[in-house]
């Protein structure tokens, strides 16, 4: 359902949210290493997130990427829509372009139910909800 870039973006924003209390800013290399992702992918994705207002950045020797209190409390859907677009929750589970309730693919009804539940979770859960278990050692961003 979500692209690899979108999954990386969510992990990166959780990482930045986990740094909020300390006020630290993080560079592309640090973020990429921590979430075990390509620096190139992380760099491009972070630029998109800054442009969309999901995160912030400052240039210079003390620069880096960071998140504000308001951004820490934004829903996950903001990251998903910034990277994968608003249509991600309308797509067919098998990737068919003409899948619909009147012209369904073999998994249409089941996939739609799961997709709708996932969309609801992305609208309700905030970045702070996801970074708290990471900060407490109850959840992880790397495998």
Provide structural commentary.
- It is a single chain.
- α1 crosses α7.
- The longest helix has 17 residues, at 108-124.
- The mean pLDDT is 93.
- This protein has helices spanning 4-18, 28-34, 39-51, 69-72, 77-84, 108-124, 127-135, and strands at 56-58, 64-66.
- β1 and β2 form a beta hairpin.
- It is mostly helical and 143 residues long.
- Strands 1-2 form a two-stranded antiparallel ribbon.
- It has 7 helices and 2 strands.
- It is 51% helix and 4% strand.
Strand content: under 5%
Distance between the termini: 20 Å
Outline: elongated
**Tally of strands:** 2
Q: How many H/I helical runs?
A: 7
What value does the average pLDDT take? Answer: 93
The whole-angstrom Rg is 16 Å
In which order are the strands of the major sheet placed?
A: 1-2
Gist?
Helix content is 51%, strand content 4%. The chain is mostly helical. The protein has a two-stranded antiparallel sheet.
Please name the defining characteristics of this protein.
single chain, 143 residues, mainly alpha, two-stranded antiparallel ribbon, 2 strands, elongated
């Amino acid at each position: 359902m979500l692209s690899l870039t979108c999954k990386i973006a969510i992990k990166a924003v959780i990482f930045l949210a986990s740094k909020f209390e300390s006020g630290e800013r993080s560079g592309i290399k640090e973020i990429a290493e921590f979430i075990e992702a390509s620096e190139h992918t992380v760099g491009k994705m972070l630029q998109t997130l800054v442009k969309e207002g999901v995160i912030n950045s400052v240039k210079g020797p003390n620069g880096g990427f960071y998140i504000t209190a308001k951004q820490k409390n934004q829903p996950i859907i903001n990251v998903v829509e910034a990277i994968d677009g608003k249509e991600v929750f309308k797509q067919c589970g098998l990737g068919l372009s003409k899948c619909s309730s009147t012209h369904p693919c073999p998994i249409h009804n089941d996939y739609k139910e799961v997709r709708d539940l996932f969309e609801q979770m992305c609208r309700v859960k905030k970045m702070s909800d996801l970074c708290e278990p990471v900060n407490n050692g109850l959840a992880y961003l790397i495998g």
